[in-house]
Specification:
disordered N terminus, five-stranded mixed beta sheet, mainly beta, about 0% helix
Length: about 625
């Protein structure tokens, strides 16, 4: 930051209940790099508990104006009166609007604040702010543009030539939106003089130079690496010949980056990714449909099946690409019975349909073995809830004889998840259902089912705190995602626990991060596990169930973990799992994240289930 003159503000007592802000309330202006002297007086203020002088993060200057406020810089106040000089580093977000106030009780779950004074740090005058860039996917330029996986290119027109000393420009694309707070504008340092990256809130995802003071740039959203199925704000900053910003950031325009919206504004209920044989179960006002899906372009084909009943749904169990078969459950929300249907993905022909009577079995989910061309459904026999596996021949679509899955001593209804390892043909069952308090193990929480011999092998004692379960696909390990916590008042830890695929003996267990995970998938060939989280890691505060979020640009994350070491190798951002994640059937048994290890590509649900998000890991 640059050096400039010093400014003095005063904070004093009010009626003894809360602390007044410095006067005047209108923002004072401070040059970049200027220290600020604060005089405060807490005499007579009641209920003080570890009071602190607080400087906000840039752009979020007042704790009563938004659902989330973060103290960007604090100073403990040990005397009832005094003077404090804030260094320039207290305003570490660069030019922009800040708030200065006092936390009267900084020791509570949510601090109690007095009034805040607004101060504006640095930044050029309005004459140093260029117009917003305009966007186009055709001949017309405007402040909004929508691209897709099938057509990702767009043009950006910009002009910073009216800004004094400008010789070029920087293109900046914001953090993804919508956030968990449904915010669409994720630039926190409006009128800033640098990249939006304050260290507290998720910053911009792209910042790169443009060659001249004005022009039209041809860009590709996929080539830029923008996470898809999300929205972005786009702005430019004027720079001098050395690349230094010489004015304010421009206003922004909006770029929408879709994978491929469901036709008719429908919602994705389930999907099975298998190259050109991929299918998706969707519903809209006209009923439900099973549609071919092209992952390469995010496009949908002519329906394989349609049901006009608005309460009907299709649940995709899996796809066998080599046999061109899709295994699907067709059901209605009001019925417990399920039609087990097999489709030819090339011709769209219904191969077979068999009804599983809900009075006899409650079907929880299933998997497809594309090597042996068969499927298996996990079901609870009724009314005793005995765990049962129902085999399905994909060539004919017929159901085989039920296989009882409860070994001696296993409580009926133990298993809620199923997976398959195509390298061995074994189907695995697991108990999934961790809670906010969970820290114990138990016998038979995992079982291996051999459909060739109709035998079931239960595990010994493994974790009972599983939030997810997956086989590695190479016959080596099956994995549990776990969440362990001794109290709802203490933020627990998500971990990764290995179990031998052969003996079902527990192996290595690793802590990944604090926060309860949502979903889980394993890429065995690349020794990688992907854990899905609703947000960035929250702040652990005793008494705050699930922790406290400090990132106002919070969106979902996928944590990439090395299964051999437990090390986090990458954190992917640009998801919104607040609504639509996990499908509508049974989140414990569904494949909410699907992977292609050969290309290290993944697919999951987009915000609201409006499309299928594709990502690289």
């Amino acid at each position: 930051l640059l050096v400039s003159t010093q400014r003095t503000l005063t904070i004093g007592p009010s009626d003894g209940t809360f602390v007044e802000a410095p006067a005047p309330i209108a923002p004072a202006t401070i040059a970049d790099g200027a220290p600020v002297t604060i005089s405060y007086d807490l005499t007579g203020v009641r209920k003080l508990n570890k009071p602190q002088l607080v400087v906000s993060t840039v752009g979020h200057w007042n704790p009563v104006l938004a659902p989330l406020f973060t103290a960007g810089y604090t100073v403990d106040l040990t005397d009832p009166t005094g003077t404090i000089t804030l260094p320039a580093s207290a305003f570490h977000g660069g030019a922009g609007l800040y708030g200065i106030g006092i936390a009267q009780d900084s020791n509570s779950i949510k601090p109690i604040y007095g009034e805040f004074a607004a101060v504006r740090v640095g930044g050029d005058l309005a004459s140093g702010r260029p117009d917003a860039p305009t966007l186009s996917t055709g001949a017309t330029f405007g402040h909004t543009a929508t691209v897709s996986r099938a057509a990702p290119r767009f043009a950006l027109r910009y002009d910073v030539s009216d800004v004094r000393h400008a010789a070029g420009a920087e293109l900046e694309i914001s953090a993804p939106a919508p956030t968990l707070w449904n915010a669409e504008n994720t630039f926190t340092n409006a009128n800033g003089d640098g990249r939006d990256q304050d260290g507290v809130n998720t910053g911009s995802v792209l910042y790169q130079p443009l060659p001249r003071r004005s022009g039209t740039a041809s860009l590709d959203a996929l080539a830029l690496g923008l996470p898809t199925s999300m929205d972005y704000n786009v702005r430019v900053l004027p720079t001098d010949r050395s690349g230094n910003v010489v004015g304010q950031a421009s206003p922004s325009s909006q770029l929408v980056v879709n994978d491929g919206l469901v036709p008719g504004g429908g919602t994705v209920d389930s999907f099975g990714i298998a190259g050109r044989d991929s299918v998706a179960g969707v519903h809209d006002a006209s009923g439900s449909s099973l549609l071919p899906y092209r992952p390469a372009t995010g496009s949908y084909g002519t329906a394989l099946a349609h049901d006009a009943d608005p309460a009907s749904r299709f649940e995709v169990i899996g796809v066998d690409a080599s046999a061109h078969r899709a295994l699907v459950l067709r059901y209605t929300l009001a019925s417990t019975s399920r039609d087990v249907q097999t489709f030819d993905t090339r011709s769209g022909r219904l191969v077979a349909s068999s009804t599983v009577d809900g009075a006899q079995y409650q079907v929880l989910g299933g998997r497809v073995d594309p090597v042996r061309h068969r499927g298996a459904l996990l079901a609870w026999h009724q009314p005793d809830r005995a765990d049962t596996v129902l085999p399905v021949d994909l060539a004919t679509g017929t159901l085989g004889a039920p296989v009882p899955a409860d070994a001696a001593g296993v409580t009926p209804g133990k298993y809620t998840a199923i997976d398959v390892d195509p390298s061995t043909g074994l189907f695995y069952l697991a108990h999934v259902g961790a809670s906010w308090i969970c820290f114990f193990g138990g016998a038979a929480n995992v079982a291996a089912v051999n459909l060739d011999s109709d035998t079931v092998t239960p595990s010994g004692s493994v974790s009972a705190c599983a939030t997810g379960f997956a086989a590695d696909g190479i016959g080596a390990q099956v994995y549990q995602a776990t969440y362990r916590s001794v109290s709802v008042n203490i933020l627990g830890t998500t971990g990764l626990a290995a179990i031998s695929a052969d003996t079902l003996a527990p192996g290595n267990s690793y802590a990944v991060r604090q926060e309860l995970n949502l979903g889980f998938a394993v890429d065995g060939p690349n020794h990688t596990a992907l854990l899905v989280f609703n947000s960035p890691t929250p702040r652990a505060v005793f008494g705050a169930v699930g922790g406290l979020l400090t990132d106002s640009n919070s969106s979902g994350q996928v944590q990439e973990v090395d299964t051999a070491t437990g090390a986090v190798t990458k954190t992917l951002i640009g998801f919104n799992f607040q609504s639509g994640f996990g499908g509508s059937y049974n989140p414990s048994a569904e494949r909410s994240v699907q992977l292609d290890p050969s290309t290290r590509t993944g697919w999951t649900y987009a915000p609201g289930g409006a499309q299928i998000t594709q990502f690289s890991y």
